[in-house]
Amino acid sequence: MRISDVLAALRIEFPAVTTSKLRFLEEQGLVDPVRTPAGYRQYSPADVERLRFVLAQQRDRYMPLRVIGERLAALDAGEEEESPVRARLATRDGVAPAADRLTAERLAQEAGVAVELITELVTQGVLRPGPRGVFDPWAREVVAVAASLADHGIDPRHLRTFRAAADRQADLVEQVVAPWRGQRSVSSRARAGTLAAEVGELCARMHTALVRSAVHDLAP
Description:
- The chain is mainly α.
- 58% of the residues lie in helices and 2% in strands.
- Mean pLDDT is 84; it is low at 84-99.
């Protein structure tokens, strides 16, 4: 298969994948297509499944490429079996789409909460709708968690510190990827996207670990 054939096969599930992304994964040693005498890449069906595995691990688990490489090595050696991944639809950014635009009303309906909760989260700056009042897909989880916290007496105004912490962590991620984003090559931009996902997930894990550590001794 030529690289164009591979893109056509993968874009059904990963619409955001690009030629530069595939070349970057090759540079990282995660796939090794053969080369023709003229230097063109040729992929086997096994190579395509390998790429599908890598992209799914990045999308669904935010797994660093180093860890994905270790998992691939274990799979190659027969030391690990791949668990089935639930199929899902995707958009250009790789996120499962809603049946229509994700408005405040739809968010409230999906979460089973009053639309007033969405309004209050926006007022407190916890949620930030787009220019047309449409929310990004992550807003679903924010609302679900906010509703659960509200059951414990934690109101949206208390969640402003979470928003502020997330913004500071995003600034750290931006510092890491800035050198790559500043380069013109498509390979560098692909690397920036990969680094942003990996470092962002590490920041989230650090935040979770610190909160768990802080509340560990509160129970009798």
